[in-house]
Amino acid sequence: MATSQPAPPTGSSSAQPSAGADPSAIAARIDRIPAGRFHVKLASIVGAGTFFDGFDAISLAVVLPLVVTTFGIGFSEAGLIISAGYAGQFVGALLIGVLSDRIGRSKAFIVSIAVFGVLAVLCALAWSADSLMVFRLLQGIGLGAEVPIAATLVNEYLGRHSRGRVSVLYQALFTWGLFFAPLIALILTSTTSPENTWRILLGIGALPLVVAVVAWFALPESARWLAEKGRFAEAEVYVRRMEQEAADAGHTLEPPVVSPGSLSPQKTRLSELFQGRYGGRTAMLSCIWFCTFFVTYGFTVWLPSMYISVGGLPPSRSLLLTVLLGAIQLAMSYVVASFVDKIGRRRTFLIGFVVAILGAGFGAVNLLVFHHTSWPVLFATGVILTIGIMLPTVSLYLYTTELYPTRMRGFASATTSSFSRIASIVSPLVFGFLLGGHGGAGAVFAILAVVAFLGLLTMAKWGPETRLRTLEEISG
Questions:
Q1: Per-residue confidence band for 438, with pLDDT thresholds at 50, 70 and 90
Q2: What is the DSSP letter of 5?
């Protein structure tokens, strides 16, 4: 909320904006400003929340074998606990997504990380499988809301020339969270008991409460959102600060050019998201979100357990391989950042889905046809799948926020990304059933290949290119 920020000029109001202070002009000025100190500060604050979102989102999957042992449950029950968390994320993405368009990005961000920080403590103190399932359900409300809101806030401050690269670099912090969860779990397994390992790991997820306090005092509100709400003087403060920083750094800013598809002052109807041109985009993105995260969570959640039950590895070795895959995920985030503005969003998605299909197909053929059930086959499958599916995974929030106008961007991002939560609910249940003796790991990889192929077809047929275009031009 940035309560320490300079107050708006005395006497200004939304009814009497200064010359040139309108949503279109504010957006045009932002689009020509290069990334600088302001953006680093912004990305650092929301990035800290996003890091712990990734950490908390994967932490239970990492220690799932230990939770299963503690409570004496089977794969199906474990799948219910995992799915409960994603069900909460689905609800949170929708509820707080709407809230972010009404009360602002920064306030909604603070609410989301406070929710999942508090619930992390309760998850660590769970006394039964049922209590853990309830706490993960509630924690998911905050987890599901944080990333789309944070991505929206970051992207609304980025110019068209740096939006792809900087946005993906920021999103890499989520992957850092995915990486550190198994790494810390690996360290804990060598220093404490299995039960203490999973309880401590889940308890670490309470640290976002510190981020919430920092964000309350230092996080700026979206200038695009402020302008859309008629709060031009407040938006002007942030835009002038960025312009001054750019000038101090020796940049010569080109004159702002208002996009033909400039911001509209009309009131948003939620039904608009499902009608006309936005309806088509919503359908396309919802399918892409579902396919991408069905594949991502389909193997990420269950692979640690598959190393043990199918590959015959002990839990410590399973965690080590999970850490190695996390390192590959992390590396892929930076690889994508290096070319997403060069080759465009469409090619990034298409290449990623093709590689994911090859990886899942490799696993399915080895397990179903040749009956190779060794851990090297599982790990090789995981590596290829990771390399492929990370391309759309780290690009999706960037791409989604580009396709809608400011007045509905928060709700649109939350709504379409909520289909990743549906996928995350369905995939653990389906794969828990399969791994419980109804098809096995080979069937898991076969289904992943089919779903990745559906994502490929959807993007190839309906996904527009957004590279080097302004947000207003794309969404207008």
A1: low
A2: S
Quickly state the pLDDT bin for 3 (edges 50, 70, 90): very low
Domain contains 257: no
Confidence (pLDDT) at 256: 79
Concatenate the DSSP letters of all residues of 87-113 into one string: HHHHHHHHHHHHHHHHH-HHHHHHHHH
Whether 256 maps to a domain, the answer reads no
The reply to whether the predicted model has a pTM over 0.90 is no
Rounded Cα distance between 163 and 340, Å, is: 10
d(CA 321, CA 382): 10
pLDDT tens, position by position, 354-364: 999 999 999 99
Q: How far is CA 76 from CA 83, 97, 272, 415, 436, in A?
A: 10, 31, 39, 28, 7
State how far the Cα of 398 lies from the Cα of 79, in Å rounded to an integer.
30
Annotate 18-46 with b (16+ C-beta within 10 A) or e (fewer): eeebbbbbbbbbbbbbbbbebbeebbebb
Q: For residues 328 and 163, give the distance between their C-alpha atoms in angstroms, rounded to a whole number.
A: 24
Point out which residues pair with 82 in neighbouring strands.
Answer: none
Query: Which domain range does residue 207 map to?
Result: 23-250+272-475
For residues 103 and 222, is the Cβ–Cβ distance under 8 A?
A: no
Could you report the per-residue pLDDT of 236-246, keeping only the tens digit for each? 999 999 999 99
Report the C-alpha gap between 200 and 209 in whole angstroms.
Answer: 16
Span 51-56, mean pLDDT? 89
Strands (E), 298-446: none
Q: Looking at residue 363, which CATH number applies to its domain?
A: 1.20.1250.20
Measured at the CA of 105, the angle between CA 466 and CA 248, to 5 degrees, comes to 70
Q: Which residues is 16 bridged to in the sheet?
A: 13
Tell me the Cα Rg of the chain.
Answer: 22
Lowest mean pLDDT, pick from 91-95, 181-185, 261-265, 305-309: 261-265
How many C-beta atoms surround the C-beta of residue 210 within 10 A?
13
Work out the mean pLDDT of the chain and round it to a whole number. Answer: 86
Confirm whether 37 is domain-assigned.
yes
What count of Cα atoms within 13 Å lies in the side-chain half-sphere of residue 70? 21
Distance CA 59, CA 333 (A): 20
Number of domains in the chain: 1
Domain annotation covers residue 9: no
Backbone φ, ψ for residue 16 (5° rounding): -130, 70
